[in-house]
Amino acid sequence: MHKLPDLPYDYSALEPVIDTETMHLHHDKHHAGYVEKLNKALESKPELLEKTIEDLLANIDEVPEDIRQSVINNGGGHANHSLFWEIMRSPQEDNKPEGEIAEVINSEFGDFEKFKQQFSEKALGVFGSGWIFLILDNNKKLKLKRHSFQNSPLMQKNTPILGLDVWEHAYYLKYQNKRAEYIENWWKVVNWTKVEELYKKASGA
Ligand code: MN
């Protein structure tokens, strides 16, 4: 059985960037819903219940066809949101990466401002519901990836180390149709310490 992880901080911790009510809805209803539906889909395949969500998504072709789309949608939703909560923290002014993660971002994208701009443009350009991720590909190279719906980077054997949810449920209560403002503010709550930790783990550094 997959379990809804607790938030690593209080529901109000991301205020005023992400409001408490949105966090409750997003975590307690949306994320919980993905976990519930994932478990329901796996009910008929007890042998799959022991696999981790990462394993299920990385080997999605081995998931029987009758439940595959449900695992993509709900398992992807579970994995994506679990990452999302982890890579945020209370807002900080002048929030930016430091140390090794800052170096790789600079070498791959020029500098942090250029990275931020590219990431934000891609996030703004997601048509309908989806995500923007910073991933490590098979060659341990950093790349930006846009995904529709809850499609997980893990299905392409990519390791996400940063992700931004641009589904309307992530921001509509506070920002209504102003996705650009949500994206701009979101940079204040990125937990770069966590992103660096995920980078080190994925790169084997
Ligand atoms: Mn969401």
Describe the global form: globular
Report helical residue fraction.
Answer: 40-55%
Q: What class, by secondary structure content?
A: mainly alpha
Q: Class of the largest domain in CATH?
A: Alpha Beta
Give short descriptive properties of this protein.
binds manganese (II) ion; 205 residues; three-stranded antiparallel beta sheet; minor pseudopilin epsh fold
Question: Quick recap of the structure?
Answer:
This protein has eight helices and three strands. It has helices at residues 20-42, 53-58, 65-86, 99-109, 112-124, 172-175, 179-186, 192-203; strands at residues 130-136, 142-148, 159-165.
Describe the structure.
With 205 residues, this protein is mainly alpha-helical. The protein has two domains: 20-86, Helix Hairpins, CATH 1.10.287.990; 99-203, Iron/manganese superoxide dismutase, C-terminal domain (minor pseudopilin epsh fold). It has eight helices and three strands; from the N terminus they run αααααβββααα. It has helices at residues 20-42, 53-58, 65-86, 99-109, 112-124, 172-175, 179-186, 192-203; strands at 130-136, 142-148, 159-165. Strands 2-1-3 form a three-stranded antiparallel β-sheet, with helices on both faces. A hairpin with a 5-residue loop joins strand 1 and strand 2. The longest helix has 23 residues, at 20-42. The protein is globular. The two termini are 32 Å apart. The mean pLDDT is 96. Manganese (II) ion (MN) binds at residues 26, 30, 81, 165, 167, 169-170.
